């Protein structure tokens, strides 16, 4: 509450996946050599990961608050999920990660969006969108957090893989890692 009037957008994000998105986006931005572009996309393909209770707790708030995208040069909240979009890494749906906000701090790109690549994008898009709509309600958030108290907190599975592409102005940069 103390900082409510600070006019600063705070976006949670730590760990391997946001770092990879930011690295790929920074490489794409650097490769453009100031030529600029109208749109930058960051797409994530995540395999073999069983999210920890902490990650799931964060996702409850992130999904409930909406995905942040950059449109018209400024941040906007949109519902994650939705219709499939063709991207360099495959077909994906709107994803709620902090990359668009972080990248907009150093790259003057009017549109920046993040996506989750999926083998079943229509299904995942509908599930994400329905979950985000449900988690807009405070009661659903409280109930979801209560359920998570009964889950064991598990570490990131060995072999979990993250592949992230950032594309803009005809340039695609890729970052990847495997948890060990």
Walk me through the structure.
The chain has 180 residues and is an alpha+beta fold. Helices cover 34% and strands 30% of the residues. The protein is built from five helices and eight strands. The protein has helices at residues 16-31, 53-65, 99-104, 121-135, 138-148; strands at 39-47, 67-71, 74-78, 81-87, 90-94, 111-117, 161-168, 171-178. The strands form two sheets. Strands 4-5-6-1-7-8 form a six-stranded mixed sheet. A two-stranded antiparallel sheet has the order 2-3. The protein is globular. The protein starts with 15 loop residues before the first helix and ends with a strand.
How is the topology of this model organized?
Blueprint: H1 16-31, E1 39-47, H2 53-65, E2 67-71, E3 74-78, E4 81-87, E5 90-94, H3 99-104, E6 111-117, H4 121-135, H5 138-148, E7 161-168, E8 171-178
Parallel strand pairs: 1-6
Antiparallel strand pairs: 1-7, 2-3, 4-5, 5-6, 7-8
Helix pairs in contact: 2-4, 2-5
Please provide the ordered H/E string of secondary-structure elements: HEHEEEEHEHHEE
What amount of the residues lies in strands? 25-35%
Write down the overall mean pLDDT: 82
Q: Whole-number radius of gyration?
A: 16 Å
Strand order of the largest sheet: 4-5-6-1-7-8
Low-pLDDT stretches: none
| Major beta-sheet overview | 6 strands, mixed
Spatial gap, N to C terminus: 39 Å
Number of helices: 5
Molecular shape? globular
Q: Tell me the helix content.
A: 25-40%
> How many extended strands?
8
| Helix-strand makeup class | alpha+beta
Keywords:
single chain; 180 residues; alpha+beta; six-stranded mixed β-sheet; two-stranded antiparallel sheet; 5 helices; 8 strands; 34% helix; globular
């Amino acid at each position: 509450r103390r900082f409510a009037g600070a006019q600063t957008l705070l976006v949670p994000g730590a760990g391997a996946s946001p770092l990879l998105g930011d690295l790929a986006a920074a490489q794409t931005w650097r490769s453009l050599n100031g030529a600029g572009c109208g749109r930058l996309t960051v797409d994530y393909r995540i395999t073999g990961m069983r999210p920890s209770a902490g990650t799931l707790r964060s996702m409850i708030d992130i999904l409930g608050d909406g995905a942040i995208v950059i449109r018209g040069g400024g941040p906007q909240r949109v519902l994650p999920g939705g219709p499939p979009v063709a991207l360099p890494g495959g077909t994906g749906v709107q994803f709620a990660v902090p990359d668009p906000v972080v990248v907009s701090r150093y790259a003057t790109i009017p549109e920046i969006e993040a996506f989750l690549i999926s083998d079943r994008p229509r299904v995942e898009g509908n599930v994400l969108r329905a979950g985000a709509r449900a988690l807009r309600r405070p009661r659903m958030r409280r109930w979801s957090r209560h359920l998570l108290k009964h889950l064991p907190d598990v570490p990131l599975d060995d072999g979990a893989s993250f592949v992230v592409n950032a594309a803009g102005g005809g340039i695609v940069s890729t970052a990847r890692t495997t948890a060990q």
